[in-house]
Each structure stands twice: as C-alpha cells, then as structure tokens.
Design a protein that fits this description.
5 domains, Dna Topoisomerase Vi A Subunit, Chain: A, domain 2, about 45% helix, DNA primase DNAg catalytic core, N-terminal domain, globular, alpha+beta, five-stranded mixed β-sheet
C-alpha cells in the first residue's frame, strides 16, 4: 500500500513541524530554530532542535531525526500510513485511495474488521464483569487483587462467562459473519461444534501502542488449565512484537521502563503510580521487544519474579537489551515473589526505594553465576573465573570492557591483572575460531568462524551491506571521513546554492559514505531547492534516516545560519570543508596504490590542497 509523492508532499506541507512537535515537546525559539528536551531519550539540557525552514528535527544528543511524518512514527509508534493518515486528518485533507492491488486492499479491510470485532469483544467482556455471573471475576480483581474500579476500567478488564459459546452468540447478534469471527481467533467454528476461545476466565485486553485491542489474555477461575491463555496469532496480533501496558507506559514521564513478568504485575504497578511498567505476552523477551522499548527509553529495570523462572528470564533479557543499546538494571524484590506481592505488602514508597537501589544487570549476572560454584574448591574457583571471563567478552568496546573488568575484580575479589589476561586470551581464542565446551571447559575449534572484537559485529555471523547481501560487507568508512563529509553536506544543505562551487571540485560519487552520496546527488539535482523533509521520506532504514538528518540539519552555533556569515567566512569555511573531503579521497587512493610514480602524483595533489580555496562570486 502506498500513496503517490504528491499526496505525501501535500500532507507534509500542510502540517508545520513546529506546531506538530510542539504538541508533544515544549519548544523555545533560539535563533532560526526551536529547541526542547528530546522526547526520545532522557536529558536535562535541551539538545532536540526543530528547523521551521527545513521542516525537520534532529537531536544532537541521541541522533534521532526526520520530518513531521517520521516524528509521529517514532513518537506514537505509527506505521508510515498511520502517521500520514493522522496528519491528513489534522489538516482536514481527504486522502485518495492508495495505489495498491486488490489483495492489499483486502488485507487492509480485514485488519480494520478484526480491530472492530476485538473492540466489540472487549466491551462485551467488560460488561459481563458487572453482571451477576461475572461477580466472581469482579471479586477476584477487587478483593483478591485489590484493584480499584478506576484501575479495572482503565485496563478494560472483563469476564468471559461459563457458557462456551456466549461470545459467539453476542458477535452474531452484532452482525458479524462466521468468516470474520473465525479469523479473529476468538471463536473456533467447526462443522459440528462452535466454542469460544475464552470461557470462565477473567479477561485482560491486549492493546497495541495506539490503545487498539488486538488480542486477549484470560486467567481461569478455579484450578483449570492452562492457568493463563492468550489469543492465537492473527493478522493484527503477534505476541512476540507487543508488550502489555506499553500503550500507557510510553506516555509515562519516568525516564526508564520496568519490565515485569505478567499482566497483574503491570496492573498493580500502574495502580501504585509506576505507570512505566510493561510485560511480555506469555512469550520469552526477544529482540523485537527490545527494539520496541528502545523507541521510548534507554534504561530498563528488570522486575521479573524472584523464583528460578524469573531469574532465568532476567538472564535471558539482559544480553538482548544490551545488544539493543539499552542500559539494564535488576530490582531486588526479596523476600517477595513478584511486584504485585511486594506492593501489597510494603507499598509504593518501599518499591521506589528498591528501584533506586537496582543493581547493574551484569554484576547481577555474575552474582547468579557465583552461586553455582564452591569457591573453596580450587577447581570450581577456576571454573568460576573462566565463566566470568567468558561473559566479559560480550563487551565489544575495550574501554567498556575495561570498566567492567575493574568493577567485577573489585566486587568479587578477583585479581584484576589475572582477569584481564584471561579475558584477552578468550578474545584471542575466539578470534581464531576457538570455542569452549560449556561443561568441561575444553577448547574446540569451529571451522570457518572468527569473532569480531570491535564495532557492532561481535559474533561470527556474516555482516550485511546496505542491500542486505550476506558476505558482501563493505570496508567501513573511517569516522573522521564520515564527519568531514557530514560537515561539507551541512554547508550545501543549508545553502544549496553553494553546491555549484562544491561540485566544480567534487562529484557526489567521490564521497565514501553511501547515504551522503545520495544527499549530495539530490542537492546537485535540485540546486535551487533541496527539500530536506522530502529526502528523509525516501530514506528506508532508521539508521539511514538518522545519519541523513544529522547531515542536513546544519548547526553553526547559537541557532545561527550561513545567511548570517560574511562572504569571507563563507569562502573560508566552504574551502576547508571541501579540502577535508578531497584529502580523504586522496588518502584512500594512496593506501591502495603500489605504483611509485602514481604515489608521487597523489602526494603532489595532496600537497597542493594546502593552497586550495573556493571563491564565491
């Protein structure tokens, strides 16, 4: 499903980015731009900037950037189509029928109907809680779980009657067809039997981040099995891609998220004032969940149960969160089993104290590991040290790894030099393809595998280039080169008319960073009007969009622009920016050149750059 470029541009131009962002962020005008606290990461000093001229935003702290459409996508977790529709409604623009095939239209219509039927089902379950038959469910929530009526209403809690076809009959009375009822997963329709998915259970509506009901969880009344039951996966429900309570938690003012184990933990914490609590939906925490959380926070505190299953859940979640770039801590709830039990026994203030005392997740992981060894036994003590060293290898950056070696050495009284040497040997061995058997610690070689120990590729899987082709990873562009290319682009994006002086000396393809080449080509193609907001729409991946936004969002100090600079300063700055890029290109050629005469010519060209100057007429 897609809309044509003219429709997208019409909607984007009808929604001033300052007005839209200003509904979510308190903005203050400084020079040509507006500044505020970034809504995508916690900060105390405003580094989030909005450009009314370019109609884009950029955070100098976390790198978030884009146009008015991508802002809603990132803040509200909308799809592109949902963001466009919201902005079109805001500007009172009727969107034309999108360009897609009949199959896409059919899927879109089915999704709409599934959302509507789930809304009807949620209302049905909620009303049943107020009936005599639902009194047992209400007693469970209000008496056993101590939930207020306001909390029950807030989360839309309900009750599924004992009759195994009660929901089916209700939906039929509402006019729903057997085809849609069956597709919803809420009722199983067979030739000889029709039965509801949920009956004699208290019900927990599961909502997406836009608070639309997409599924249900049900807890059985009594001793039936399974104790908890979730909706099956449908066109609108994928339990591995959603988190319970996130529709409320993402709006919390707290700068961290509490990751719980179940529905009642989330609800109890929200009722106690911790409106930033979420939980996975009866499935193990995974990479999708981590990426979803990363949109809203940089810190997660693990609050799963204190039993063995909860400990294992914490140990599984931590590496996933770390790989997503999320700082992780672990909350100690002893002597209680879960947050719900803790809150009922000790109250919110005590829980707030435990949050402040939350422990670094890696230190917690080593503490758990230590419990499995008798350190008075030399062999087990050696095995423990080996296990610690293996886990320290997860830190790819030497500085970060060194900091954790310092902390672990101090916390567990392991000689620092010995631990560092052990970790360095592990990294060297893994780089050679050596792995250790988990039981007897004997090294074994895995053919054809090596371990990258720096950058983001920390494991032996093949890295992909921008097109996703395995095994075709391009040589990384040095950070200094990227920064110089970004500097040049900031000039020509701020003043596209300056591009004619730049392109006399540099071609877009001379830039080494791919997304920067594309920006330069667009500026050259539209010398009188480079539309930054439109270009960002065409950036596919989030990383591309952020890198592009950083380049096109020029910042020259105190909110000033190039229009404030004298011609002499313009010439000086532009000459320096072009000189850096030209020098990087020559250095790259020198590094791969083996011909003496060619090396001499390249070196001469590099020397001539010292007097390079652009004259603006």
């Amino acid at each position: 499903m897609r809309y044509d470029e003219s429709t997208i541009e019409k909607v984007r131009e009808a929604n001033d980015i300052v007005d839209v962002v200003g509904q979510y962020v308190r903005l203050t005008k400084k020079g040509a731009n507006y500044f505020g606290l970034c809504p995508f990461h916690g900060e105390k000093t405003a580094s989030f900037s909005v450009s009314p001229r370019k109609q884009i935003y950029y955070c100098f702290g976390c790198g978030a950037g884009g146009n008015v459409i991508s802002f809603l996508m990132e803040y509200e977790n909308y799809s592109f189509q949902e963001s466009l529709k919201a902005l079109a409604d805001r500007a009172h623009i009727d969107l034309p029928e999108p360009k897609d095939g009949g199959e896409d239209r059919g899927a879109r219509e089915l999704k709409r109907q599934l959302l509507d039927i789930h809304k009807d089902a949620a209302m049905y379950y909620y009303r049943q809680l107020q009936t005599p038959e639902g009194a047992a469910g209400y007693r469970y929530f209000s008496g056993q779980r101590r939930l207020s009526d306001a909390t029950i209403t807030h989360f839309g809690l309900g009750f599924a009657p004992k009759a195994s076809d009660a929901l089916y009959r209700f939906l039929k009375d509402k006019g729903w067809s057997d085809e849609i009822i069956s597709a919803s997963g809420l009722v199983t329709i067979q030739e000889t039997k029709i039965h509801d998915k949920f009956w004699n259970r208290v019900m927990f509506p599961i909502m997406d981040t836009n608070s639309r009901v997409i599924g249900f969880g049900g807890r059985v009344m009594g001793d039936g099995v399974p104790k908890y039951l979730n909706s099956p996966e449908t066109l609108i429900f994928d339990k591995s891609a959603h988190l319970y309570g996130l529709n409320f938690a993402r709006k919390s003012r707290r700068k961290y998220m509490l990751l719980c184990e179940g529905y009642m933990d989330v609800i109890a914490l929200h009722q106690a004032g911790f409106t930033n609590a979420v939980a996975s939906l009866g499935t193990a925490f995974n990479e999708k969940h981590a990426r979803l959380l990363k949109r809203y926070t940089d810190l997660v505190i693990l609050t799963q149960d204190s039993d063995d299953a909860g400990v294992n859940a914490k140990l599984r979640a931590y590496p996933i969160l770390y790989d997503a770039g999320i700082q992780t801590k672990v909350l100690d709830m002893s002597p209680y089993k879960d947050p719900d039990e803790f809150i009922r026994a000790e109250g919110p203030d005590a829980y707030e104290t435990r949050i402040r005392q939350a422990k670094n997740a890696f230190i917690y992981m080593i503490e758990v590991l230590k419990k499995h060894y008798d350190l008075s036994d030399p062999a087990e003590k050696t095995a423990f040290y080996n296990g610690v060293a293996d886990r320290l290898c997860m830190f790819r950056e030497p500085l970060e790894r060194g900091n954790y070696i310092d902390s672990v050495s101090h916390e567990f009284m392991i000689p620092k030099d010995e631990l560092k040497a052990l970790v360095d040997r592990r990294i060297e061995e893994k780089g050679a393809g050596i792995r250790y058997d988990d039981t007897n610690r004997r090294p074994r070689v895995i053919e054809g595998q090596s371990l990258q120990t720096s950058g983001t590729a920390a494991y032996p899987e093949a890295r992909s280039g921008r097109n996703g082709a395995a095994g075709t990873a391009k040589k990384p562009v040095p950070l200094s080169v990227q920064q110089n290319e970004k500097l040049l682009l900031s000039w020509i994006c701020e003043r596209p008319d300056l591009g004619r002086y730049v392109f006399q000396h540099i071609r877009p393809e001379d830039l080494q960073t791919e997304i920067y080449r594309e920006i330069a080509a667009d500026v050259r193609e539209h010398p009188n009007h480079f539309d930054a907001a439109s270009f960002l729409d065409r950036c596919g991946e989030d990383d591309e969009k952020r890198k592009a936004a950083a380049a096109v969002f020029a910042e020259f100090g105190n909110g000033a622009s190039l229009d404030d600079m004298s011609r002499m300063d313009l010439e000086k700055g532009l000459s320096e920016a072009v000189r850096h890029v030209l020098r990087a290109g020559i250095d790259e050629k020198i590094a791969s050149c083996s011909d003496a005469s060619e090396l001499g010519r390249l070196q001469q060209s590099k020397n001539e750059l010292r007097s390079f100057k652009i004259t603006i007429t």
